[in-house]
Amino acid sequence: MNPVIIAFGAAAIGVAVTSGVALKYTMEFVPYIYSNTRASARYATLLKGKTYDELISAASFEEAIAILEDSSYSKIVEESNIVSIADALDMELYKEYEWIFRISPPKTKEIMSAIKDIFVIKDIKRALNSFSKGEMPRLRFIKGELKNSIESSPDMQTFIAAMESTRFKDELARANANDLSETYTRLDIAYYRRVSSVINKCDDDDVRAAFNEYWSVMIDFANIRMLIRALRMKKTPSLLTNGTIPIEALSSVTYAAQLDSLIADTQYANKIDTSSSLNIDIGLVNILKEKARNIASKYHLKTGGIIRLLIEKEIEVKNIYALLKLKKEGFSKEKIREVVFQ
Length: 342
Description:
Elements: H1 3-43, H2 49-57, H3 61-68, H4 82-103, H5 106-115, H6 117-132, H7 144-151, H8 156-162, H9 169-172, H10 181-201, H11 205-233, H12 247-251, H13 256-263, H14 277-298, H15 304-328, H16 333-339
Helix pairs in contact: 1-15, 2-3, 3-15, 4-5, 4-15, 5-10, 6-10, 10-11, 11-14, 14-15
């Protein structure tokens, strides 16, 4: 056989193999192109530093509302009642989570479904609080037959019975109307664990790694808060695995200064002040903003854009609520600037 023909044939096979590998590699990212493009466009609409400066510098609550009337939050601030605004902002965040879920590629949908369960838990807590006061609950996020069943429950026991077919039944089984704090903690712990479990079941290494980078920070801060509460109440804390701070090290902490010393040896050194809940929240937000940038850059071909939007939208909603509430209460511009994150 002509050696030229043999050489040409071998080259053709090589090209075909290379093209096949390239096509497979390209197809792996196709489902993420649409979602990342949409998420990036949405991210670009978030409030900018200039708008925050104007809001902080506003002479009054009413002036801050007027500034927001020219933004995507115009409908939310139609009412000047801060409670109504808080509810509207919560619904805005819920809709954003739902939107992110809808545009998410198949391998991230189950993770997003688990993450947005936070709104179901908010409704459960709202129902528990209402029943403890002898009031009828009005749910905002739970839908369908379960919503009807809960809202028609005459008391807490009937409500708990209605929840027996849900994944929250174990956390609600020992609910005590006289002290709901333990039930709230059990619900929170179950939420963090479920999200972590769903993330770790994802068979895409990059998707799993990206979400774990985000969620491990959430677990760390949940553990820090639970540990501080336990130390204050002289109780043994229920701590979560899958954070970056070893649970063994956290479990050995017996006083506040020891916790500060432990944190000083982690990635959070000089970034968390545990002296108050507000300072812990400030530390969390600053760390999450940095994490959002890193994840968006590191995993830009897959879920980086989605996670960045998820983090930044929640921060924005919290910013607006905090800013308006402090304006309403007459706090100074300097004090407001301390708690608004840009």
